[in-house]
Structure formats: structure tokens, C-alpha cells
């Protein structure tokens, strides 16, 4: 499916009046820096200006392209596929008005036409696709920065919201696909594709229901055996399952069946959007982490909250070796607690944090570290961030700097060095729990 996510050329079919969906997709592709060939198509012809560039609108497609993005009335889509089928590899059908509103025969005709020409379909009734490393933003959703997360969403609206939230959380994406009615390609196909995509480090999947459970299980197992797969399943309750069925036409089925499938395949199930991105942030930094955690904090309360959450999640509060304890005592003020969690007290500075991290990191009983910083007004959060960044520690370090404006500079510095911040002790603890599942 490289012709979808790494295309060299694209044709867009629809209205190119300013504000129309086809126009907005064209603008997104141009503004995103796509370096391939772009062909707008509308029977009326003419020209369209987008972001300082002028494009000739072709009355019909007459040359081969990798992908077509189609935003025309549903009743005309099958005949368009018949017309251009020999010139395209794949089609992204944004148009709605198919099986989701009862037009099952029209959708069946669309699939038949596509199969006749060997064309693969995404959609219909979808929000489009991104191939971020190709600078291809074939959707009307907000653009994102390049990174390692592929987002597969059954819901276009959820996908758009998730992309915007991912931007706020500092997530980098490799790809995005909203697959709508899944008339042809579905979640199973995309799981297998991104499992083998070298730019994808982790896969996030939002599903409401699937049509072929066995195929989904096989694809999920294949993908999760190669890289982290983070799943957010909607439609868990009886009412939610009914809503999901009416939304997508898929079989939501018993949640317990899905839950068993996720456990069996070692997919990582999360409960809400916030957790999906926390898990993605964790896996963007580290492939995995051990279960024995050392907590380093300058505030007792957050350290206790982190400890409680770690134990509740089944992780171990590492028992520090005697040599580690003695070395910590040799340079920390007597008011500091050298038991795990290690409390450096409020005035902990660059030197105290850095040396403590390095000493604890060398302990063979410690697999990973959770570093908490709640800076007083006389200690810069950037100073503590530099200590975390510059500490000689090859083990996974998850950080919780809080809160808000007080730590913004430190969090920005961490982000520049590829370290993501988790805003609460509990969210940081969960990040380590997910890493321990790999």
C-alpha cells in the first residue's frame, strides 16, 4: 500500500471552490510540502489558486497517478472508478452516502468496479489519509509532525480530534488513516501494513467493531509481535455497542471477546484518549522497560502517589542495594530519604538530581526510573531538566514535571531532547506499566 502512504502523484476529484472539501484537501497537500505531482480534476475545468500556487483543473484524468482522492456525490463514484480505474493504484473515497445511510447496493457496485480494475479502496465515508514522511496530507484534518506513530481510526471525527491532541502532546506521526465504511481495506490490512513499515515504531488503533474477527485476530497478532499496538475500543457497554453498530455498520460484539483477543495477541488496551497518547509517548522513547522501578522526587506527596500507582499496576518498587544506599547518604543532605522512593527535598538542584539519577541507575536491582520534579520558585525547571538529560543513565527514565507554567521551560527542553513529560505521577506510572508489557 505504499501508493497510499508514499505516493509520487495524486489526483483530487471534487469542487475546488474555496471552502469545499476537495479544495481544503488540495490546500492541505500543498501546504504540507508534498513534492509529487498534484492533479485537480473537475469536468468544468478552469484553474484554482492555493497558497500562492496556480493549478490547472483538468476536466478528466488522462495520465496515471498513484492515488485518487474522491470527494464527489456518492451516486457518481462507481462510474468514476470505472472511468479512471486503469490509471490509478488506489482510491480514497471521502464521499458519504453509502452503506452508512442504507445504500448497500451502491457500495457493493463501488467495490465491484474497483476490483474489476485492480484498484484498492479506502472508505467510503472517511476523512482521508496522511503519509507524514512523504509530506503527504491527503485529508482535511490538521497536519502533524513526523514521528513514529501510525494512527488507524474507524471514525474520521475521532481521528481528527486525536491528531489535534497528538500535536498538543508532542507526538510525532508516521501515518494516519480513517477507513470509514471499510468497503475494501480495513483495520486488518492496515495493521499488517504498518507492522512492516520502517517509519512506524508503534501503532494506535481506534475501533468500534470489526466484520471479520478471525482475520482481525491474525492481523493483530502479526502486528503486535513486531511492534507495540495500542488499542482504544469503543462500544464496550450494551448501549455503546448499539451506537457503534449504527455508526459503522460493523459488529461491535461482546466486549469480553475483544478483551480476550487483546490479551492473547499482547496488544495494549487503553481506556481513553489520554491514555492512548501517553502510551504512544512512552513507546516513542523506549521499546520496553523492566518491572523494578526507582522513584526519585523532590516532593514527598507526588512520590507517594507514584509509588501507590506503580504497585497497583503490578510493578515493583525496587529495593536498592546497600552500596547504593550508602553512596546516596554520602552526598545527600540528612533530611533526604534514601529509601525508595528517594526524596531529594524541595531545594534539590541540578547537581543533586544528576548524581542521584546516576547512582540509582547503576543499581542492578533497578530496571527503570521515574523522576518527579515540582520546582519551588527559586529552582529553575530547566536546571532539573538538564540534570535528567545529562545524567549518564542507559536505563529508561520517565519524567513527571508539574505543573503548568511553572515547569513549561523544563518540559520544552526535555521535548527537544526526545524526552516526553507525563503531567501527573499516576500517568507517569502508567507509562512504565505499558512499557513493562513488551
UniProtKB/TrEMBL annotation:
**Which segments does the entry list as coiled coil?**
none
Q: Which domain of life is it from?
A: Archaea
Q: Name one GO molecular function term.
A: ATP binding
- Domain CoA-binding: start-end pairs: 4-98
Catalysed conversion reaction = acetate + ATP + CoA = acetyl-CoA + ADP + phosphate
| SUPFAM superfamilies named in the record | NAD(P)-binding Rossmann-fold domains (SSF51735), Succinyl-CoA synthetase domains (SSF52210)
> Which keywords, in A-to-Z order, does the entry hold?
ATP-binding, Ligase, Nucleotide-binding
Question: What is the E.C. number?
Answer: 6.2.1.13
Please tell me which top-level EC class this enzyme sits in.
ligase
Keyword match ATP-binding: yes
Q: Which PANTHER family match?
A: ACETATE--COA LIGASE [ADP-FORMING]
Q: What is this protein called?
A: acetate--CoA ligase (ADP-forming)
The organism of origin for this protein: Thermococcus piezophilus
The organism's taxonomy opens as: Archaea, Methanobacteriati, Methanobacteriota, Thermococci, Thermococcales
Amino acid at each position: 500500500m505504499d501508493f497510499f502512504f508514499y505516493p509520487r502523484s495524486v489526483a483530487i476529484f471534487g469542487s475546488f471552490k474555496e471552502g469545499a472539501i476537495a479544495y481544503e484537501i488540495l490546500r492541505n497537500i500543498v501546504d504540507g510540502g508534498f513534492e509529487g505531482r498534484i492533479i485537480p480534476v473537475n469536468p468544468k475545468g478552469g484553474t484554482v489558486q492555493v497558497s500562492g500556487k496556480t493549478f490547472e483543473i483538468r476536466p478528466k484524468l488522462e495520465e496515471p497517478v498513484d492515488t485518487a482522492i474522491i470527494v464527489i456525490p456518492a451516486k457518481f463514484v462507481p462510474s468514476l472508478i470505472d472511468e479512471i480505474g486503469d490509471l490509478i493504484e488506489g482510491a480514497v473515497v471521502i464521499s458519504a452516502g453509502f452503506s452508512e445511510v442504507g445504500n448497500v447496493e451502491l457500495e457493493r457496485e463501488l467495490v465491484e468496479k474497483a476490483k474489476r480494475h485492480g484498484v484498492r479502496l479506502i472508505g467510503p465515508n472517511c476523512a482521508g489519509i496522511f503519509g507524514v514522511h512523504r509530506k503527504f496530507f491527503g485529508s482535511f484534518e490538521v497536519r502533524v509532525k513526523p514521528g513514529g506513530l501510525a494512527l488507524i481510526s474507524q471514525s474520521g471525527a475521532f481521528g481528527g480530534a486525536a491528531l489535534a491532541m497528538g500535536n498538543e502532546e508532542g507526538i510525532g506521526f508516521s501515518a494516519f488513516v480513517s477507513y470509514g465504511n471499510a468497503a475494501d481495506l480495513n483495520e486488518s490490512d492496515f495493521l499488517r501494513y504498518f507492522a512492516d513499515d520502517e517509519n512506524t515504531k508503534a501503532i494506535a488503533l481506534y475501533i468500534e467493531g470489526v466484520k471479520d474477527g478471525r482475520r482481525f485476530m491474525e492481523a493483530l497478532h502479526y502486528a503486535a509481535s513486531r511492534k507495540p499496538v495500542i488499542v482504544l475500543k469503543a462500544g464496550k457497554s450494551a448501549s455503546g455497542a448499539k451506537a457503534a453498530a449504527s455508526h459503522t455498520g460493523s459488529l461491535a460484539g461482546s466486549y469480553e471477546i475483544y478483551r480476550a483477543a487483546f490479551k492473547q495477541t499482547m496488544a495494549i488496551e487503553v481506556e481513553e484518549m489520554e491514555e492512548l497518547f501517553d502510551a504512544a509517548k512512552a513507546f516513542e522513547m523506549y521499546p520496553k522497560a523492566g518491572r523494578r522501578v526507582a522513584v526519585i522526587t523532590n516532593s514527598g506527596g507526588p512520590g507517594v502517589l507514584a509509588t501507590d500507582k506503580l504497585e497497583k499496576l503490578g510493578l515493583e518498587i525496587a529495593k536498592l542495594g546497600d552500596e547504593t544506599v550508602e553512596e546516596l547518604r554520602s552526598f545527600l543532605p540528612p533530611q533526604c530519604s534514601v529509601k525508595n522512593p528517594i526524596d531529594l527535598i524541595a531545594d534539590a538542584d541540578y547537581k543533586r538530581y544528576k548524581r542521584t539519577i546516576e547512582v540509582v541507575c547503576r543499581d542492578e536491582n533497578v530496571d527503570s526510573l521515574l523522576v518527579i520534579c515540582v520546582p519551588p520558585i527559586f529552582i529553575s525547571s530547566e536546571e532539573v531538566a538538564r540534570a535528567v538529560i545529562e545524567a549518564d543513565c542507559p536505563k529508561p527514565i520517565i519524567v513527571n514535571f508539574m505543573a503548568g507554567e511553572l515547569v513549561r521551560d523544563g518540559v520544552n527542553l526535555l521535548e527537544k531532547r526526545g524526552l516526553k513529560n507525563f503531567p501527573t505521577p499516576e500517568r507517569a506510572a502508567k507509562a512504565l506499566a505499558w512499557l513493562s508489557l513488551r
